[in-house]
Specification:
By secondary structure, the protein is an alpha/beta fold. Helix content is 64%, strand content 11%. It contains seven helices and five strands. It has a five-stranded mixed β-sheet, with helices on both faces. Strand 4 and strand 5 form a beta hairpin. The longest helix has 84 residues. The protein starts with a helix and ends with a helix.
């Protein structure tokens, strides 16, 4: 076998092995998407109803709570960025990071200091490589987040909102994550979680809007402030949990799409290498035939010369 043909054979074998791996990863990601979609669907009604409850308490009382009251001149904001722990997902993490950078630039242009919180090793590595300060980070659960993970992330953020800015607190809380729209579409989004915009919360759907318009004043026990103290942390946790689930579903969808593309490309490369290998083998056979014919002709000429 010729040297060129051996090279093609080795490359075909290597690409075939890679194709098997990417195909397996594509199938694994596809199976995980189904579970992630179910979790997103299951968590959304709870987050929506909890938002309505917080809105009802806030609009049904005259209490000014620090988590629902706009600061007149905000000076510091917290940004929670949700990325992935793993790669092989196309531009999933990089798109979320770019969205967070745009948000940070906007907040900075408004005169606000920005404290960055990150979920996922990809985001941590990106900011660490560029020596950008990160207030706190969490890793290891982005593929399959639980409510306990969301609670762990929400704790320091809620504390930062409740503290005074002079003591390292923040006036606003924003979150950047990738929203799962469909198997083919995942969009990086940025939402402000706190202070809760009562108008936006009430307009999440028509029923909530109607409740907001006709809501009377209520008496709360022990007090509206105590009720908000209990509800708002759950609100932040539920919103972060829903965002983590949305991000997980988006990541699996991005991985599936990237692995499918890699599998298709591997298949195309195998076809191309097979054609080159066939051409090399044909050239080798042609050369061997030419050598045999040439040798036979030379032998015939030599035999004819000796007979003379």
């Amino acid at each position: 076998m010729g040297a060129q043909l051996r090279v093609y054979k080795r490359r075909i074998k290597s690409v075939t092995a890679t194709k098997k791996i990417t195909k397996a990863m594509e199938m694994i990601a596809a199976s995980r998407i189904v579970k992630a979609q179910r979790q997103v669907t299951a968590s959304t009604p709870y987050a929506t109803e909890l938002t309505r409850a917080v809105t009802a308490v806030a609009t049904g009382s005259n209490t000014k709570h620090p988590l629902t009251t706009e600061v007149e001149s905000p000076v510091r904001a917290a940004v929670l960025l949700v990325t992935s722990d793993r790669g092989l997902a196309g531009g999933y993490s990089s798109n979320a990071i770019k969205a967070a950078e745009r948000l940070t630039e906007r907040l900075t242009s408004e005169g606000k200091e920005v404290d960055t919180y990150i979920v996922g090793r990809k985001g941590v590595a990106y900011y660490g490589f560029r020596e950008i300060k990160v207030t706190e980070s969490w890793t290891g659960f982005t593929d399959s987040p639980t409510y306990a993970d969301a609670k762990k992330v929400a704790g320091p953020l809620i504390e930062a909102v409740q503290r005074d800015t002079a003591d390292g607190g923040v006036d606003e809380l924003h979150i950047v994550f990738t929203e799962f729209v469909s198997m083919l579409t995942q969009t990086p989004v940025q939402n402000r979680l706190l202070p809760l915009s009562l108008a936006d919360a009430a307009n999440q759907d028509e029923d909530a809007a109607k409740k907001h318009e006709i809501l009377p004043l209520f008496d709360f026990e022990p007090s509206a402030e105590d009720v908000l103290d209990a509800l708002l942390p759950r609100y932040v946790e539920s919103r972060i949990y829903n965002a983590l689930l949305q991000a997980a579903a988006s990541k699996h969808a991005a991985t599936r799409r990237a692995m499918k593309s890699a599998t298709d490309n591997a298949g195309d490369l195998i076809k191309s290498l097979s054609r080159l290998a066939n051409a090399a083998r044909q050239a080798e056979i042609t050369q061997e035939i030419s050598e045999i014919v040439g040798g036979a002709s030379a032998l015939a000429d030599a035999t004819a010369g000796s007979e003379k």
